Predict the 3D structure of the following.
Amino acid sequence: MEYRKAKDQESDDISQKDVESLDMRSLSHTSATSSLSTAGGPKGKNTWKLKSIVTLALTLLTSSQAILIVWSKRAGKYEYSVTTANFSVEFLKCLLSFLALYRTWNSQGITEDNRLTTSFDEVSVYPIPAILYMVKNLLQYYIFAYVDAPTYQILKNLNIISTGVLYRIILKKKLSEIQWAAFILLCAGCTTAQLNPSSDHVLQTPIQGWMMAIGMALLSGFAGVYTEAIIKKRPSRNINVQNFWLYIFGMLFNLVAICVQDFGAVINKGFFHGYSFITILMILNHALSGIAVSMVMKYADNIVKVYSTSVAMLLTAIVSVFLFSFHLSLAFFLGSTVVSVSVYLHSVGKPQQQK
């Protein structure tokens, strides 16, 4: 009897353990199913929706940027001061960064990483990229004396080469063989798009335009790499704080440019003399483009930025056909296709980190 009682008790214990084990497996399966449905549910849809909106915004902003600059001209020249336009862009970006930071203060409070007060050592690194961006942004106005909007969009991709080389030199980052091949394709694509079979000149863009494009690429590449080094030096620092100080110095340097280049015109005619509705749209476009790039890198990825850049080149060319009677030649189409492929290869050809 004692043996049977002990046996029955052991069987009950085993049955209880089986039930508990079954319950745990069922609970685990339910949790996994719930987690999977959540990932593909509203949260996944919201992420996809946000990426789609940001991608569309960046594509439209990028494609219309060059068009608005050309469109803002009157009789082939700018009636407004390009230095005041640059200052307005920096001011608007600074304001948007501060508003985003203020929203963070309201939701998270003021912390060590998001406060505006800082040390001299931290602030002292921002003047270098600020002055580089100022010169580069001024050049983008003057380059349109030699190139059209679609050509500008293609030549602007030369900054990928300068950025890649400077990454290797300054940040000691290794480039893959695919990325180096992409650089060669990019140069070939930019050159092909400029072929001019109907003239004695091999290339449509004069040497001054090429020099400005190369200068812009070097300035943009160096400023971008230097800014990334600053940001990654203190990764926990709120990006809006870093942008705020960068744009503050951008405003200061553009104010100096106004005093040097357009002081008399601004004093006599006013700061906003010559501004039109198109000029205001152009300034808004430049400011929002900078914000959109930040959002793409935060909420999407670099592939999205690549697609936006490639589609923007084609959109700019198509719109320019109707607005500025641009001739969409076979050389331009083939060149823009090669540039798009090279940009994509450069993005996917990043060296894999060793685990």
Q: What stands out?
A: The chain has 14 helices and no strands. Confidence is low (pLDDT under 50) at residues 1-11, 14-40. Residues 2-39 form the longest helix (38 residues).
